[in-house]
Design a protein that fits this description.
The complex is a heterodimer of chains A (about 375) and B (about 300). With about 375 residues, chain A is mostly helical. Chain A has helices at about 15-35, 40-50, 55-80, 90-100, 105, 115-140, 145-165, 200-220, 220-230, 235-240, 245-270, 280-290, 295-320, 325-345, 355-360, 360-369; strands at about 1-5, 345-350. In chain A, helix 3 (about 55-80) packs across helix 9 (about 220-230) and helix 8 crosses helix 9 (about 220-230). Classes of the chains: A mainly alpha (about 375), B mainly alpha (about 300).
């Protein structure tokens, strides 16, 4: 039996809408098999994984905390990927945003007042954008593959942060723990509804960013440029859209948003710098971007789903003693299935029998003529 | 003299996994497929190799398991990109993400356990020759596999008809298809070969380099292998040279850390990654040369029309 793809005359609106849901169902089925193999009743596991983490109000706050960085990073990445430009180093830009944004509370702890937070957020965005500018510069100046350079810089950023919190930025009163001083109150991102949970303004930033990117992509010339260059660089060149400028635009934009996510996470959820500040948000955001079909509104929904996989992973770890890496497995499977289902948008899939390969010689020759 | 030999030996050990993974990916990319999942296949090979070695007590079974693991895992990528024509960049990335997660879950019980190490080859008489003896006749078996593999791939790609066909597919899948060549079948086999190589490279890490299981123990080597292929302009012998240069960088920074050079250890640890960036910049600067060397269909999905 073999698969055969038959091109549809036009993209299927039905599957365009359905494919994330089909992918989700397939992930659930594969997940059930996985839990069964681990010797856990899948129904129990799913209840603990997907339902219990969001059954109380304070838990919804936790969901928002996890979803905020995912959405912020993913909407930026979606613009890159639409333009067929591959920034996969958002994790590094997130870290640099966190570091540069922390300059004020760490080096000038006596500086307080309402100006501190806006400056921190601004610095975070600048830090993320500046770090993203490196692969953009190397790509435009030296024609260097941006996938590999942006990824290599993730490792460098992680080591840089590690050096900072163990070396020059370590809290002298911290009993030797590798961390900076606790931020002062004016450097802490306020909580949204302190009486019901911990969620902070980072989630609002994420929603606003998603809205702005939606406007950019669907209502502005720049968004049109992104889509044209992404689907046909040649046509874009004829229209006078510069590919190099686009590389810089998308990298700086996605870097700034990743940086904003970084400083929001530091200032909102953590309150100081530590050796590790992200459970792989920058990589998970890639999944969020694709699961949300590179569409800002879809990304908000996808960000919430992926945030739930993080919470569920922690929940099964404490309740069932399964490694919390199960979250990464779920995330990876989800991306796999959504990419596979996306094929249905452009193609119909036909299953042919064993005899097909022998028959196919004839039509192939026809094509050759 | 002894120190020099020791350093050369450690360089070879550090270079071997890079070389094997990059040689595999080179064949994949020569067939026109870009598989960014090397890191994921490698870590799956590492966990599979360690696990099988640990459970059976035989590192040789571990070696086979590592290869099988990498090949099976790459099959996932092959079905997606070749049969379902999905985006190769995104699918490769997801293979890496899935591999890192799956290996962490599978290896949860192996953390901290002592592993089995593949024994070094020891030829009575020959290994005892001073200096060259240990370099040529006393290394781990995967070292010899890596050298033989490089030679075999070189011969296959440039001296056999099948190799020529494979390269032609990478340069123009449409023309190859028109000539009646089974593009998808060639690509399936290439991807699986690449997966087996990445798995073997991972097995080297957990069965020779550091015979234990540590989460994320590949530490970006899969990505460096991808960079090596670009650095080598898709030529096997240059991959060999590149892998040893990177092995030297990797070992050099470790020795520098051990000697207590007054530079932050984190800076030294980041050298292999920074070196990768620098090398990519140097090699890609000449745009025309890069375009000439790159397989022309690299990364393009192919759906046979009928």
């Amino acid at each position: 039996m073999r698969l055969e793809l038959v091109k549809r005359p036009q993209r299927s609106m039905l599957f365009s809408a359905l494919s994330p849901f089909i992918a989700f169902v397939l992930t659930i089925i594969a997940g059930a098999i996985m839990f069964a193999l681990l010797g856990v009743n899948p129904l129990t596991a799913f209840r603990i994984y997907f339902i219990e983490p969001i059954s109380q109000v304070w838990q919804l706050h936790e969901l928002a905390i996890k979803a905020a960085p995912l959405i912020l990073i993913a909407v930026g990445l979606s613009v890159c990927y639409k333009a067929n430009i591959w920034n996969i180093g958002a994790e590094g830009q997130f870290i640099l945003g966190g570091i540069v944004g922390s300059i004020f509370p760490v080096l000038f702890p006596q500086f307080e007042g309402p100006l501190v937070l806006p400056l921190m957020l601004l610095f975070g965005m600048v830090g993320g954008a500046a770090y993203a500018a490196i692969p953009a510069l190397l790509k435009t100046r030296f024609n260097t593959n941006e996938i590999l350079t942006s990824l290599m810089l993730v490792y460098v950023a992680q080591l840089f942060l590690d050096w900072l919190v163990r070396g020059p930025w370590r809290d002298p009163q911290g009993h030797g723990f590798p961390q900076t001083i606790q931020f002062n109150d004016s450097a802490i991102l306020p909580e949204l509804l302190p009486e019901s949970g911990r969620a902070n303004w980072g989630f609002v930033f994420a929603l606003v960013a998603a809205m702005l990117i939606w406007i950019l992509m669907s209502r502005m010339l720049k968004g049109f440029e992104v889509r044209v260059l992404g689907s046909s660089p040649r046509a874009g060149r004829f229209a006078g859209f510069g590919l190099n400028r686009m590389v810089f635009f998308t990298f700086l934009l996605s870097g700034a948003l990743a940086g904003l996510a970084g400083i929001s996470e530091i200032s909102g959820a953590i309150g100081q710098l530590q050796p590790v500040i992200s459970p792989g948000y920058g990589f998970t955001a890639i999944i969020v971007a694709f699961l949300g079909r590179l569409n800002p509104l879809g990304i908000v929904a996808a960000g919430l789903v992926l945030a739930l996989t993080y919470l569920g992973g922690e929940a099964v770890q404490s309740a069932l003693g399964i490694s919390d890496k199960v979250a990464r497995v779920f995330q990876g499977m989800l991306l796999f299935f959504v990419l596979g289902c996306d094929t249905l948008i452009h193609y119909r899939i036909r299953l042919t029998g064993f005899s097909a390969p022998k028959l196919e010689a004839a039509p192939k020759l026809e094509g050759a003529r | 003299m002894d120190i020099t030999v020791n350093i050369l030996l450690t360089i070879a050990t550090a270079a071997t996994p890079l070389l094997i993974a990059a040689i595999g990916e080179l064949v994949v990319e020569r067939s026109g497929v870009l598989n960014l999942g090397v890191e994921g296949m490698m870590i799956m090979g590492a966990v599979g190799g360690f696990g099988a070695g640990y459970l059976t007590g035989s590192p040789w079974i571990g070696l086979l398991a590592a290869i099988t693991m990498g090949a099976v895992f790459s099959l996932l990528f092959a079905v997606m990109t070749l049969s379902l024509a999905t985006n190769q960049v995104a699918t490769g990335l997801s293979l890496t993400l899935l591999g890192l997660g799956l290996s962490g879950m599978m290896g949860a019980n192996f953390v901290g356990q002592p592993g089995e190490r593949l024994p070094n080859l020891d030829v009575p008489g020959l290994t005892a020759i001073p200096v060259v003896g240990r370099l040529l006749f006393g290394q781990d078996p995967i070292f010899y596999i890596s050298i033989a593999l490089t030679a075999a791939v070189m011969w296959f790609l440039f001296k056999t008809r099948t190799g020529l066909t494979l390269r032609s597919i990478g340069d123009s899948h449409a023309s190859a298809h028109a000539l009646g060549i089974h593009v998808i079948r060639y690509r399936y086999l290439s991807v699986i070969f690449g997966g087996a190589c990445a798995g073997l490279a991972g097995g080297h890490l957990s069965l020779v380099y550091t015979p234990q299981w540590v989460e994320n123990m590949t530490a970006g080597r899969g990505w460096i292998a991808l960079a090596l292929v670009v650095f080598a302009s898709w030529r096997p012998w240059r991959v060999l040279a590149g892998a040893y240069i990177f092995g030297a960088v990797w070992i050099g920074q470790l020795h520098a850390q051990a000697f207590g050079i007054p530079v932050p250890s984190q800076l030294l640890s980041s050298l292999p990654y920074l070196a990768t960036v620098v090398v990519l910049v140097l090699i890609s600067r000449n745009k025309r040369l890069t375009m000439m060397n790159t397989p022309a269909s690299l990364g393009q999905p192919f759906v046979p029309d009928r």
